[in-house]
Amino acid sequence: MGLSASQIPEPPKKDLPLWDVKLGELPKWVGRRDISPTGVYFAFKRAELRFHNKYVHVKRGGIAPYAMMLTGYCILSYIWSYDHLKHDMMRKHP
């Protein structure tokens, strides 16, 4: 199901990473991004591959990647249910 690193296209090497882009060059930098559904899909796959190589596929791995994923899930579920929780917080109970 997953793709190997050789199947995922890398962004052009001559392009600067986001943290090296000056504020005035930001619109041109964003214009060079591939925002098609396939480009976005491969960007997420590259990020997933980097995450796994950095935290999961290591010699002496620990609980850190799973704790990060659990924390991210907890934060997302809180954000998704915030409107419902907000109404419960404002309700007065006798």
Keywords:
extended; 4 helices; 94 residues; mainly alpha; 0% strand
Walk me through the structure.
InterPro entries: F1F0-ATPsyn_F_prd. Belongs to the ATPase F chain family. The protein is mostly helical and 94 residues long. The chain folds into two domains: 11-61, no CATH class; 62-93. The chain has four helices and no strands. It has helices spanning 26-31, 37-56, 64-80, 82-90. The longest helix has 20 residues, at 37-56.
- Shape annotation: extended
Please give the radius of gyration in angstroms. Answer: 20 Å
Which structural class best describes the helix and strand composition? mainly alpha
Domain count: the total is 2
SSE succession = HHHH
Describe the secondary structure blueprint for this structure.
Layout: H1 26-31, H2 37-56, H3 64-80, H4 82-90
State the gist of this model.
55% of the residues lie in helices and 0% in strands. It is mainly α.
